[in-house]
Design brief:
Distance between the termini: 33 Å
Number of helices: 0
Mean pLDDT: 88
Largest sheet: 6 strands, mixed
Shape: flat
Oligomer: single chain
Order of helices and strands: EEEEEEEEEEEEEEEEEEE
Structural class: mainly beta
Number of strands: 19
Strand content: over 45%
CATH architecture of the largest domain: Sandwich
């Protein structure tokens, strides 16, 4: 069958104007190259390095916002296409939130954990990001700043961060929190 391609942002989250991020495309492939698309239009090509290609965005503007995907090609033949990942560029006006996890960062499989994203703005809503994941894990409800995972497993292990926003009248964002590593034994 066709190889599976994963696509994700590193670091995850909304990019500040003038900021940077990297779009990572990876697959278990031998050779060939990746083609990066934004809003359905081809924008860059890169040879495979190991099992990954990284496309950097620096000095971000609103023109960099959009829906990105990767195609993996061998010669001119498309062997696989990734899911899409949305790149957002926004104004950072809120303070940086602080992410914590209870009962701790090292938990046994099957345990429950609660991620808490603390921010001083009472009307903020927050996203929880897991590095390497295409989408944000959850949108915290307004007034609730925690996200529960029951019965954690090895797939929940990884690096997490959170980012908050308010709509006043347009989106205003916080920087992304410092990261936390969750280890599942």
């Amino acid at each position: 069958g066709a190889p599976a391609i994963s696509i994700f942002l590193k670091p995850p989250g909304v990019i500040p104007l003038g900021g940077s991020t990297t779009i990572c495309c990876s697959c278990q492939c031998d050779n060939g190259h990746f083609v990066l698309y934004r809003n359905g239009k081809q924008i860059r090509t890169q040879e495979l390095r190991g099992s990954r290609a990284e496309f950097s965005i620096s000095n971000a503007t609103n023109k960099d916002a959009g829906v990105y995907s990767c195609h993996y090609l061998d010669g001119r033949t498309v062997l696989a296409r990734s899911e899409t990942v949305e790149v957002k560029v926004g104004e950072f006006c809120l303070p940086r939130p602080v992410l914590s996890v209870m009962p701790g960062q090292d938990v046994p499989a099957g345990a429950s954990v609660i991620f808490r994203c603390n921010i001083t703005h009472s009307n903020a809503r927050c996203y929880l990001y897991q590095e390497g994941a295409i989408k944000a894990s959850s949108l915290f409800l307004e007034g609730r700043n925690s996200f529960n995972i029951t019965h954690v497993h090895k797939g929940n292990e990884g690096r997490y961060s959170c980012q908050c926003f308010i709509m006043d009248p347009s989106f205003k964002w916080s920087p992304v929190s410092e990261t936390l590593d969750l280890v599942v034994r």
